[in-house]
Write a structure and sequence with these properties.
By secondary structure, the protein is α/β, with parallel strands linked by helices. Helix content is about 15%, strand content about 35%.
Length: about 250
């Protein structure tokens, strides 16, 4: 984990309301894993007071990229940063996806902004990757060049008409799920349905969860999620990635 000032390489709009920021850490090789996140101080003042957590979208050598949507004042500040501006980051934080390259098939399942960690994960995997993206409409679909992408929208404005779990059910056979790993990230309702699908099909599934948090490393205890074994786990410290059978969704 590091606390460091970095340099903004570029900020650009991926699609209306969705931005990507590319950040350089000159001379600081990054040791991050897919599924981890960073806590970003979005301005050099005390406003906004709290850092903002963002999943690492991609990472290579001394560069990372983050994907974000315009939700409030903090993300608007990020969107207005320019090349050469300084930005302070804390990270990488949390536990990411567990990589098992003895598996020959990998299945990405993302709802809306849940696509964010998958470009980085793609770099680390061997074997065939299939990608399923879902959203309420085409406006919520974010395509980032992931392999073998199929799309579902609730209103049918793009791709399959229905939700992303229904799309998976229509495309994947038991043979497809045999010796495969499913990786999910998206709204809780989607992850809950993905958990049901995975248990029904006896499939291995890891999910990246999201929760409001402050410190990002377990001190404030502000991001609990219920454990299936009783008690609670912290999204920032024990997660954000969990085996889907570990937590109550």
């Amino acid at each position: 984990m590091f606390l460091a000032d970095a340099i903004v390489n570029k900020v650009f709009e991926v699609k209306p309301g969705i931005h990507k920021i590319v950040i350089n850490f000159p001379g600081l090789p990054l040791k991050s894993e897919p599924g981890q996140f960073v806590n970003v101080r979005v301005s050099e003042t005390h406003y906004p007071l709290l850092r903002r957590p963002f999943s690492i979208c991609d990472s290579e050598k001394d560069t990372i990229s983050l994907l974000f949507n315009l939700m409030g004042e903090g993300t608007r500040m990020l969107a207005h940063l320019k090349e050469g501006d300084k930005i302070n980051l804390l990270g990488p934080l949390g536990n990411g996806f567990r990589i098992n390259n003895s598996v020959k098939k990998h299945i990405f399942v993302a709802g809306g902004m849940g696509v964010a960690p998958f470009p980085f994960l793609k770099r680390k995997l061997d074997g065939k990757i299939s990608t399923f993206l879902g959203g309420r409409s085409s406006k919520e679909i974010i395509e980032l060049g992931l392999p073998n992408t199929e799309i579902a929208t609730d209103d049918g404005s793009l791709g399959f008409k229905g939700n992303v779990i229904e799309l998976m059910e229509s495309r994947l056979s038991p043979d497809d799920l045999n010796a495969a790993v499913i990786y999910g990230c998206g709204p809780t309702a989607m992850l809950r349905a993905l958990k049901k699908f995975s248990i029904k099909n006896d499939a291995v599934c890891q999910v990246s969860t999201e929760c409001a948090m402050a410190c990002g490393f377990g001190i404030c205890q502000g991001c609990p999620t219920e454990s299936t074994e009783g008690g609670y786990k912290l999204v920032c410290k024990d997660g954000p990635v969990f085996d889907v059978r570990e937590i109550v969704l």
